[in-house]
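User: Okay, second chain of the day. Same drill as before: sequence in, structure tokens out.
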Amino acid sequence: MNAPLYNTEILRLAASVPFDERLAEPMGSVEKRSPVCGSRVTVDVMVDAEGQISAVGMLVRACALGQASASLMGAHVVGRSAAQLAQARDELTAWLAGERDVPPDWPGMEIFAPALPHRGRHASIRLAFEAAAEAAEQARG
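Assistant: Same drill. Structure tokens below.
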């Protein structure tokens, strides 16, 4: 586990967060903040009749790891259900805590393997997934 914490791929993802504007009238909206570093992510969602994410907006004020996580979440969130987002959030939490040997079943998450021993960075990595899962649940109403 000698890979650098902030590598080129993390920095590329951090600089390319999709859906970087808030939705005007979201069906669900949640802000999460890391008490450790002050990183903050707000996720707004709209869901379709089947309960799948149809639109997303984000406000990301986070470190590079939090931005990269928001980028990965945003790149693959449309079409997902609240249950799928909750599963990704739970798998991410378990993986970061060492309770799971493999990264979450979400594209690109292995990029955070160098952060596993840095517990103080975990909250920032979880923010976007926590906010998205809660916003999707809220939108289901």
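The chain is about 40% helix and 15% strand.

User: Thanks, on to the next one.
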